[in-house]
Amino acid sequence: MVEIGFPKVPDLNALRKLVTVSGFPHADVSRFGHHPVVLIRLRPRHKTVGKQVAATLARTVVAHYPGSRVVSEELIGPQVGSALREKGITAMVATLVLILLYVAFRFEWRFAVGAIAATIHDVVFTIGFFSFTGIGFNLNVLAAILAIMGYSLNDTVVVFDRIREDFRKYRRGTPLELMNIAINETLSRTLMTSFMTLLVVIALLLVGGPVLRGFSIALFVGILVGTYSSIFIASATALMLGVDRSDLLPRRREDLADGRP
């Protein structure tokens, strides 16, 4: 990781082309703070030559930009990478636990299990996509995955709300029939919300540059899988666990006038 200061803010696209032509096509070039400082991150070809790679990259940039200077050079070793991985896993596990408690408190434990199943599906599918395609996984992608978990939960809660309303509204019908009615009633809202969100993500993917590319790809994949997981996984899991109308009906209070419970 090389931090380089410039007399004025450079053209990042031109700087990225220079870094690519110099033999570092996978380098990540981004602004650092509000000052004319650029942060260049890349993976060395071999651990033992990490510092030499950073020094070569720094000399190349400084030679093409008079007045620039190297602010710092750091080598992020496996110990730091392991700490980042552990913190990322901890963040996702804590999020899943809080989702489980929230949905169980608001609805019923079977719905909580369904919400967790859908959320885990979205996370595993998105991470698997990055693993299959070989796209770089960094902290921006991790932030996108956490955002996907929140987006998926929001869609799931909307569907669950309508299921609870229909369970209380209709006196007849099996849980399967009532769930199908609720999903059909929320289907247009789910699709429109996902479509409008995807438009924003596509804009980030097209004009956001290399810095936001991984973040945008993760959101794009996560929104697609999150849309159908709220319908086909969350609700189906709750149904498989045996959720019934009686589980969501409001509890009766004691009738003091008649002396009946």
**Tally of individual domains:** 2
Give the class from helix and strand content and strand pairing: alpha+beta
The CATH superfamily name of the largest domain is: Multidrug efflux transporter AcrB transmembrane domain
Strand content: 5-15%
- The helicity comes to 55-70%
Q: Topology as H/E string?
A: EHEEHEHHHHHH
Distance between the termini: 69 Å
CATH class categorisation of the largest domain? Mainly Alpha
CATH architecture tag of the largest domain: Up-down Bundle
The strand order across the widest sheet is: 2-3-1-4
Q: What is the molecular shape?
A: elongated
CATH topology of the largest domain: Multidrug efflux transporter AcrB transmembrane fold
What are the defining features of this structure?
alpha+beta; 4 strands; Alpha-Beta Plaits; 261 residues; Multidrug efflux transporter AcrB transmembrane fold; disordered C terminus; 8 helices
What does this structure look like?
The chain has about 260 residues and is of the alpha+beta class. The protein has 2 domains: about 1-75, Alpha-Beta Plaits; about 80-250, Multidrug efflux transporter AcrB transmembrane domain (Multidrug efflux transporter AcrB transmembrane fold, Up-down Bundle). Helix content is about 65%, strand content about 5%. The chain has 8 helices and 4 strands, in the order βαββαβαααααα. It has helices at about 10-20, 50-65, 80-105, 110-135, 140-170, 175-205, 215-240, 245-250, and strands at about 1-5, 30, 35-40, 70-75. The protein has a 4-stranded antiparallel sheet, with helices on one face. Helix 4 runs antiparallel to helix 7 (about 215-240), helix 5 packs parallel to helix 7 (about 215-240) and helix 6 runs antiparallel to helix 7 (about 215-240).
